[in-house]
Design a protein that fits this description.
The complex is a heterodimer of chains A (about 190) and B (about 475).
Chain A: H1 2-22, H2 26-46, H3 50-75, H4 87-109, H5 114-117, H6 130-138, H7 142-163, H8 181-191
Helix pairs in contact in A: 1-2, 2-3
Chain B: H1 12-30, H2 37-55, E1 61-63, E2 68-70, H3 72-99, H4 105-122, H5 126-144, H6 151-182, H7 187-196, H8 203-220, H9 228-235, H10 238-263, H11 271-291, H12 296-315, H13 325-351, H14 367-370, H15 372-386, H16 392-406, H17 410-436, H18 450-468, H19 471-482
Antiparallel strand pairs in B: 1-2
C-alpha cells in the first residue's frame, strides 16, 4: 500500500513537473507546479515529516503559487511566444538536462549499502513533528536560522529598490527616486 | 543543552557591521536625500567593524554548536571585505558627483553584503555558508541593477540575477547530496569523514562536491561558468563593479579555500581534475577574450576571469597536510588583486564623468598629458596586474604559480605564465594609450574629487610598498591559512 502510494505520487510529481516546462501557457505551468508541490507534500508525509509536509502545502502550494499567479496576471504574459523556441537552444538545454538527470539517477542507484553504516540514521519516534524541528532550529541550527532574518531583510530592501517605478512617470520630486545614470545627472544637477 | 550555543564575542565584528547597516538604513529615512552624512556614517561603522576585527586577531573560537568559527582566517578576510567596502564608498561618493545620485538604500546595501561575506568567511557549516552567500548575492544583484535608465544595464543585471539564482540551486543541491552521504553539514565532521574514507569516497559525496564546485564556480566567474561576468560588470555602476571584482570575489574564494583547499582536498575526489580544467580554461579564455575588448570595464571583467584561473592553480592539488603554500598563495593574491583592481576601477570612475560614459580604451589616450598623476596611478595598477616587479601583482603570481609547481602541477603553472604574457599585452596597451598617443578626443574637464585622489594615492602606494616588502603580508596570510585547521 505504502509503496504503491509512493509510486503513484512520484509518477504524478514527475508528470506534472514535465508539464511545468512543456506547457506553452505560463498559467498552466503554474498550476502544474501546484500539483508538483502537493504530490511532494504527500511524499514528505510518507517520510513521516508531517511538519514539513504541512508547511509545503501552506507556503509553497498556497502562498508562493498565489504570488506566482499574481505576477503572471500583472505582467499579462501572452500564451504563445513567451519563451524562445530556437531549436539549438532547446537541444543544448535538453542535453544538459539529460546529463544532469543521468548523474542524479546514478547517484541514487549507486547509493549502495554505505548509507546504512553511517551513524545518525536511526530516527526518533517523534521525528518530523514540530517539537524536534523547532528544537533543532533553536539549538544546532540557531545561527543559520537567525541569519535568515538578515537575508529576508535584504531581500525586502532589494525588492523595494528594484521594483520602484522610474521617477519621471510619477509626480514626485526627482531626488526621491534612484539616480539612474543619465537622466538623474541632468535633472538633479540643476537642483544642486 | 545550551552550553556553547551562542557567543557574542565570536560574532562581534559581524554584529558591528550589521548594526552599521541597520543604522544607516534608518538614518537614510530621516535625512534629506543626498545628504553626505549617510555615506560617512557607513564608513564610520565599517571602520569600527575593522577595529573590532583587528583587535580580535589571535583569538580563536568555535561557537553556535560548531556552525561558526572565528580565527585568523576569518579576520584576514574581514579586513579585505571591510577595506574594499570603505574604498568602494569613497569611490561611490565621487561617482555620485559625476553621474547622479545613488538611492539612499545603496549605502546600507554595502554593509549588508559585507555581513554576508563575513558569514561566509567564518562559517563552519554548509548551510550557514550558503545563507551568507545568498545575503551577499542579493545585495549584489540589486546594486548591479542600479543603472536603471539603460536597457543594456538591465539586461546585465537580469542575467546576473538569473544565473546567480541558478548557481544557488547547484549549491543547495550539492549540500543536500553531501548531507545525504555524511549526515552532517559541519565542515569539521565532513573533513573527518573524508579523511577516514579516502579510499572509498561515496558516489553521492563526489556528486555533491562537483555540484558545490559548479555553484561556487558560477559565483567567482570561472570558465565555463563566466557568461554573466562581462555583462554584469559593464552593467553595474563602476564603484559597484569594483566592489564585485574584489570583495565578492574574495568571499567566493574564502568559501573555495575552505571547501576545496581543505575540507575536500583529497585526490580521492575527481574534483581535483575538474578544478584543473577550470583553472586552465579560465586562464586561457579570460586572457584571450580580454585582448579583444575595447571597453575597459569589459576588459577588466575578462581579466578578472583570468585572475580566477591563476587563483585556482594554487588550489589544484594543494594538500594542506603537505604544504601551506597553496592556501597562503591564494590569500596573498586576493589582497594584491583587491588593491590593484580597486585602483583601476577608481581611475575609471574619475575619468568616466559627464554625460557620456568614458570607459573605453580610446578615452584613455593622452591622459598622461592631461592628468599626469592619474596616468601614473593607472600605470602602477596595470603594471601590477600584468605581474611585473616591483609591484604586489608580481609576488601574487609568484606565490600561486610556485604553489602549483610545488604540488606537481608544473604544466599548469607554465600555461599560467604563458597566458600572463598575453595579459601583459592588453594591460600595457592601456599605458601605451595614455602616454604615447595624442588625445583623440578633447577631454571634457572633470571635477576633481579630493577623496578619490587620496584613495587612489594610498592604493598605488600600497601596491608598490607591498611589492617591495611582501614578507609581512605573506606571514599574515600564512598564519591566517594555518588557523583553519
Amino acid at each position: 500500500m505504502e509503496t504503491a502510494l509512493f509510486f503513484i505520487m512520484a509518477a504524478i510529481a514527475i508528470t506534472a513537473g514535465g508539464m511545468v516546462i512543456l506547457n506553452k501557457n505560463p498559467v498552466k505551468s503554474a498550476f502544474s507546479l501546484i500539483v508538483v508541490m502537493l504530490a511532494l507534500a504527500i511524499l514528505y508525509m510518507q517520510l513521516s515529516a508531517t511538519f514539513l509536509s504541512m508547511i509545503q502545502i501552506m507556503v509553497y502550494a498556497g502562498a508562493v503559487m498565489v504570488l506566482f499567479l499574481f505576477v503572471l496576471f500583472i505582467l499579462n504574459v501572452g500564451v504563445e511566444g513567451a519563451f524562445s523556441s530556437r531549436m539549438y537552444k532547446r537541444a543544448v538545454a535538453g542535453l544538459v538536462g539529460a546529463l544532469m538527470g543521468v548523474v542524479l539517477i546514478a547517484a541514487v542507484l549507486m547509493r549502495g549499502s554505505r548509507m546504512q553504516q553511517l551513524p545518525g540514521m536511526d530516527v526518533a519516534g517523534d521525528f518530523g513533528h514540530i517539537k524536534p524541528v523547532g528544537e533543532l532550529l533553536f539549538t544546532k541550527y540557531l545561527l543559520p536560522f537567525e541569519l535568515l532574518s538578515i537575508l529576508l531583510l535584504v531581500a525586502i530592501i532589494g525588492a523595494m529598490l528594484t521594483t520602484r517605478p522610474k521617477w519621471p512617470k510619477l509626480k514626485l520630486p526627482p531626488e526621491l527616486w534612484p539616480g539612474t545614470a543619465d537622466e538623474a545627472s541632468t535633472e538633479t544637477g540643476e537642483e544642486n | 543543552m545550551f552550553e556553547g550555543l551562542y557567543s557574542w564575542s565570536a560574532v562581534a565584528p559581524a554584529l558591528v557591521v550589521l548594526a552599521t547597516a541597520l543604522v544607516v538604513m534608518m538614518t537614510d529615512l530621516f535625512v534629506e536625500p543626498g545628504n553626505r552624512i549617510v555615506p560617512w556614517l557607513t564608513i564610520a561603522g565599517l571602520f569600527a567593524g575593522l577595529v573590532v576585527s583587528i583587535s580580535m586577531w589571535g583569538t580563536e573560537e568555535v561557537a553556535f554548536s560548531g556552525a561558526w568559527k572565528i580565527g585568523a582566517f576569518s579576520i584576514y578576510f574581514y579586513c579585505i571585505f571591510i577595506v574594499a567596502a570603505i574604498i568602494t564608498i569613497f569611490f561611490s561618493m565621487s561617482h555620485e558627483e559625476r553621474r547622479g545620485r545613488f538611492p539612499g538604500e545603496y549605502w546600507s546595501l554595502i554593509p549588508f553584503s559585507v555581513v554576508g561575506m563575513m558569514v561566509m568567511a567564518s562559517a563552519a557549516d554548509l548551510i550557514t555558508l550558503i545563507i551568507g552567500l545568498e545575503t551577499m548575492s542579493l545585495c549584489a544583484y540589486v546594486m548591479v541593477g542600479l543603472n536603471r535608465g539603460d536597457k543594456r544595464s538591465s539586461e546585465g543585471a537580469l542575467k546576473y540575477f538569473l544565473l546567480g539564482a541558478f548557481a544557488s540551486a547547484f549549491l543547495l543541491y550539492g549540500t543536500a547530496f553531501i548531507y545525504g552521504s555524511v549526515i552532517t553539514t559541519r565542515f569539521a565532521e565532513i573533513t573527518v569523514f573524508v579523511s577516514a574514507h579516502s579510499n572509498a569516497i561515496p558516489f553521492n559525496l563526489q556528486v555533491g562536491a562537483i555540484l558545490l564546485l559548479v555553484g561556487l564556480g558560477f559565483k567567482v566567474a570561472a570558465v565555463p561558468f563566466h557568461m554573466w561576468a562581462p555583462d554584469a560588470y559593464q552593467a553595474a555602476p563602476t564603484p559597484v563593479t569594483g566592489f564585485m571584482a574584489t570583495a565578492i570575489k574574495a568571499a567566493g574564494f574564502a568559501a573555495i579555500v575552505k571547501i576545496f583547499g581543505l575540507m575536500l582536498a583529497t585526490s580521492a575526489l575527481v574534483l581535483q581534475d575538474l578544478i584543473w580544467w577550470l583553472a586552465l580554461l579560465s586562464m586561457i579564455v579570460g586572457n584571450f577574450a580580454a585582448v579583444m575588448q575595447m571597453n575597459l570595464k569589459r576588459m577588466l571583467a575578462y581579466s578578472s576571469i583570468a585572475h580566477v584561473g591563476y587563483l585556482l592553480t594554487a588550489i589544484v592539488g594543494s594538500d594542506p597536510g603537505v604544504s601551506l603554500q597553496g592556501g597562503t598563495g591564494v590569500l596573498f593574491y586576493l589582497v594584491s588583486y583587491a588593491l590593484m583592481t580597486l585602483g583601476a576601477f577608481g581611475v575609471l570612475i574619475i575619468i568616466g564623468g559627464g554625460e557620456d560614459r568614458r570607459e573605453t580604451l580610446v578615452d584613455m589616450t593622452g591622459l598622461a598629458s592631461k592628468s599626469p598623476g592619474l596616468a601614473l596611478a593607472m600605470t602602477i595598477f596595470m603594471v601590477s596586474m600584468s605581474g611585473i616587479p616591483p609591484t604586489i601583482g608580481f609576488f601574487g603570481k609568484f606565490y600561486v604559480f610556485g604553489a602549483a609547481v610545488q604540488s606537481g602541477y608544473t604544466g599548469l603553472a607554465v600555461i599560467g605564465i604563458l597566458t600572463s604574457v598575453v595579459g601583459v599585452f592588453y594591460y600595457l596597451r592601456v599605458v601605451v594609450n595614455m602616454y604615447m598617443k595624442p588625445a583623440e578626443k578633447s577631454f571634457v574637464p572633470w571635477r576633481r574629487s579630493r577623496i578619490s585622489d587620496i584613495t587612489l594615492g594610498v592604493l598605488a602606494a600600497a601596491v608598490l610598498y607591498i611589492g617591495i616588502f611582501p614578507q609581512s603580508l605573506l606571514d599574515l596570510a600564512r598564519s591566517a591559512f594555518k588557523s583553519l585547521f
